[in-house]
Write a structure and sequence with these properties.
This protein is an alpha+beta fold. The protein has two domains: 11-44 and 63-366, no CATH class; 388-632, no CATH class. The protein is built from 13 helices and 26 strands. The protein has helices at residues 71-83, 87-96, 169-172, 205-209, 223-230, 237-241, 275-281, 393-404, 409-418, 489-498, 504-507, 541-554, 562-566; strands at residues 11-15, 31-33, 111-115, 120-128, 142-146, 151-153, 178-182, 193-198, 250-257, 262-268, 284-290, 301-305, 319-321, 359-361, 364-366, 433-435, 441-451, 458-466, 472-474, 513-518, 529-534, 593-599, 606-611, 614-620, 624-626, 630-632. The strands form nine sheets. A four-stranded antiparallel beta sheet has the order 3-4-5-15. The protein has a four-stranded mixed beta sheet with strand order 11-10-6-14. A four-stranded antiparallel beta sheet has the order 16-17-18-26. β3 and β4 form a beta hairpin. It is elongated and about 85 Å long. Residues 1-52, 326-356 and 581-590 have low confidence and may be disordered.
Length: 633
Amino acid sequence: MHKLNVHLKKGALCGVLALALGSLVVGNVAAIVAPTPAYAASKKSSKKSKKTKDGSVKGVKVKKKVDKYTWSELAKISDAMTKSGSRKAALKIAKKYKLCDKKGKLDGSQTKKVALNDCESSAMIVGFYHDDLSDGSGKAGITWQFTDCLYMGNPLYASHVTDFNILPSTLKDCLATVKKNTVYRDDAKASQATSEDVQLWAPSATEILGDASEMKNINRDSEWMTKSLNAEGTQYDYYEAAGMNWTSDSQDCEFTLSDSGYWIELVKTDDGLSDQKALEQGKVKLDSSYKKINGFDWKAGFRSIYYNPLTPDAGLDNLGGYSYDDDYAPVYDETDSPASNNNTSWPTGLYDYSTDKASAVMPMFCLTSPSDDSADSDSTGVAVQDNVNGYSWKDLKSIANEIAAAQDDSAAIEIAKKYHLVGDDGNLSSASYKSIDDDINAYIVGFNHDDRSDGKGKAGITFLIADASPAKLAMNKDGSNMGGWKDSDLRKSIRTEVNWCLPQALKSNIVRVKKLSNNAGVTTDPSSVTSTDETVWLPSMMELIGKDGLEEEFGSLEPDQLAVYEAEGTQYAALQGDNDTRWTGYDGFTGNNAWTRTCDASQSGCFLIYRGNDFGGPWDTNDELNIYPGFCL
């Protein structure tokens, strides 16, 4: 079957926390630091700078929602909070820029969408003036955490995320380096933490649950566990406000969980060696891949060791983490430990896709302005945003015009990259969308794909509406397919039927284009495919699954009609080749039957349909089905 678009479904995950199976804990050796109590107050910054009287940050306007700021703007705000010299002054800035409520509290609504290279995620503010910057300049102003699973694997791999093509450059360029303490297995009973400079990290148990002295069943034989846990940091503001602790869960603390599809794994560089030999000889490396694997009950991991105070002398071979269950039972298996890793460059042993050796990791990070903070606008006058959804329709039309004027496809992609319409590798993904309303989104599926009806070249950007259908309509009420798309009832009414959901700012910028369709009906003659001028239209089967897909579906069943289907345009770039895997995380067409404009050329009374991410076959034209129209700017 041919994968089209599959929706990134995000369900609320109650913040019930327990200790979960992770993997063997060893790691890079750095400076050993003494444990700090979980309740210790944050130290004031050693460096103070001038504070503005009203907390204003030069070049950053106050916006209604956190998501409206760019990462560059948020980095500037964070730097101003650092320079303020105190938590009180930092909170004043946070309140001014609406990064918290009027009392300086965080409630989980302070989120920003993140257009990853292959999909979309989300990050939430979890703390202010909490983490020490590695350069000694003070506290990082804002600490964030991915609310979706950023990758599957070992939580201790979080610091390596920047080694791979996962994060957008708009975020990666603004990452601050901070000091984080981690207790590794060999130092656990001595309660000694290793201090490391990192840009991303998995949370520790105490950063989420608070002071470990509240842990159940602690006795004189297991007090060292409390000290080890507290050596890894203090609780973040958001989790403290939500009432998260070691003895009870909080219904006020919720996460959305989406399996992003990224994996970070330790792999062999010599396939001729066993896993154990590869580890012993250092013939391993970290590798990243993007592959959707659904149906696993992932455990969201801490960077902390799993401790059981009832059995303090048990092996410390597992990491702790979030439990997705509604109870507090530890989830671990002492007998299932990966092979020991003698190469200290890597924090764990080899593993594959088993739920007991990989966890969902939601890393944390802080921001700072890059040294080369170039202007955030271009010659078009359009301010560069972090993602497609940050632009107005007017801005997108200006960008579309610039793309349309590009000399070739390569130049067009460079323009799209400049405006962050695509990933850093130049490919479209399910993050390349703009919201039309709360339910309906428009996804970019191609650049310079469609010919303008006025003869002025290509329309710069092509969109397909997805995630919710604006209407359910019959193709032809009389059950015919004569005259194909051109003479269909649906074509005559589609603009009126979808008009309600299109904002005026969009409608005024839509470009009329020529679309190729079988406008005869039952035929074997490719010349039956002619063009019509359209502002809003349905995709053809060729545009969705391409020539290879058509040949697979019709090569043996309808060989005489195959050329007719193949004449109806070209496949959208977003669905070509490897790009198709980027769309398997989002059900763009809700999995329901949806019309294409492709008439069934082999029999009367039918048009072709698609269903979620599958080719759907022929369907009677008098049935009412979903529509997911396209349009161009």
